[in-house]
Write a structure and sequence with these properties.
Blueprint lengths: L4 H29 L4 H27 L5 H9 L5 H25 L15 H24 L4 H15 L8 H7 L13 H24 L3
Helix pairs in contact: 1-2, 1-4, 1-7, 2-6, 3-4, 3-8, 4-7, 5-6, 5-8
């Protein structure tokens, strides 16, 4: 079944909004309940995000492809699976959906609709972590899409759950989510000044994975 662009954009908006709601909301709840134990708060944040990804990709994958991530959309554009117009529209609604998700979550917890983050996430190590996290995410997405499409929701959810813990940045790996997280001064936030470094690293990691996979795929026998 093929859906119109409007329907696909709606799915991307809603899916990205709920993804950010899971990230931000679980961070707020985890921090409230962890009693100052950052590891427990991060674990709560991790489990909720990974579980939400599985559910959202299952729900919207057959409608829009469940990108929820401009880097995934960029990869599809490079592969010729999307037009420039559709890809640009996807990126815009993903960012808008992410921002909406942060605002809605703040209101659920009785916080100001928008509060710019003061959470510093700067330095070469964290930027490199985002490159690695996004590189790995795209390899998982592309590999599963090529060989085992039905596993994508579970593989992506599992990868992000793991990457929260094996990367120094806790694996944002998504420009739309990163921008949204700059608007929340809570556990999962990132200072707006640190966002450009994360975005550059995420795009770089996504492009590297896309071109590497295309190279490997072209040499398959």
């Amino acid at each position: 079944m093929t859906f119109t662009l409007r329907v696909r954009l709606t799915a991307e908006f809603i899916g990205t909004a709920f993804l950010v709601a899971a990230v931000v909301g679980s961070g707020v709840m985890g921090e409230k309940l962890a009693g100052g134990n950052v590891a427990i708060a991060l674990l709560a944040n991790t489990i909720a995000t990974g579980a939400a990804l599985v559910a959202l990709i299952c729900a919207f994958g057959s409608i829009s492809g469940a990108h929820f991530n401009p880097v995934v959309t960029l990869s599809d554009l490079i592969a010729g699976r999307m037009s420039w117009t559709d890809a640009g529209a996807y990126a815009v609604v993903q960012i808008a959906g992410g921002i909406a998700g942060a605002v809605v979550t703040h209101l659920m917890f009785g916080l100001p609709a928008v509060s710019l983050s003061l959470h510093a996430r700067s330095g070469i190590a964290l930027a490199w972590s985002e490159f690695v996290a996004t590189f790995g995410l795209l390899l998982v997405v592309l590999g599963c899409a090529r060989f085992r499409p039905s596993t994508i929701p579970f593989a992506v959810g599992a990868y992000i759950t793991a990457a929260y813990w094996f990367t120094a940045s806790t694996s944002f790996a998504n420009p739309a989510v990163t921008i949204a997280r700059s608007l929340t001064n809570t556990f999962s936030g990132i200072r707006p000044i640190d966002v450009p470094w994360f975005l550059a690293a995420q795009v770089g990691g996504g492009l590297a994975a896309t071109f590497l996979f295309r190279r490997l795929d072209s040499q398959a026998g």
